Amino acid sequence: MTSHSPLRLHPPEIITWRVYERPLPAGYHVLAERLWPRGVRKEDLPLDDWPKELTPSTALRQWFGHVEDRWTEFRERYLKELAEHQEEACRLLDNAEGRPVILLYAAHDKIHNGAVVLREFLLSQSC
After folding, report:
1. Cis peptide leading into 23, omega within 30 of 0?
2. What is the pTM of this model?
3. How many of the other CB atoms lie within 10 Å of CB of 111?
4. Most buried residue, 25, 31, 68, 75, by most Cβ within 10 Å?
């Protein structure tokens, strides 16, 4: 059993942000991708966390392939995966220490990507 910070009075601010857009907003920077983004040098991306267990599984990511017609099923499957990692989600929110959580993603589509689902999941947590 782990201890978490005291119950939050307000939900955390959680922003999805394309990793290639600069400048990055201030906050707790989290890479919401299982793979490192193409063309980005590690020293050029200030990360606070890279919780791979909170990213879509390789099989799910490959199945989705950013095909918009698969979005609804992808979202459902990904939320089911995330349900197995509530402790890690709470740890991420605790580690942000009240700062806005910036979920960084590489996809071109700002609406149909894993960071959007992860944001939804994190906002639903009562840690």
Report:
1. yes
2. 0.91
3. 9
4. 31
Residue boundaries of the structural domains of the chain: 14-124
Taking Cα atoms as reference points, which of 123, 114, 118, 122 lies closest to residue 71? 114
In angstroms, the Cα distances linking 39 to 11, 19, 44, 69, 108 are: 34, 11, 10, 27, 14
Q: Which of 3-12, 45-54, 105-114 has the lowest mean pLDDT?
A: 3-12
3-state secondary structure of 64: helix
């960071």: which residue's tokens? 115
C-alpha 118/C-alpha 22 separation (Å) is 22
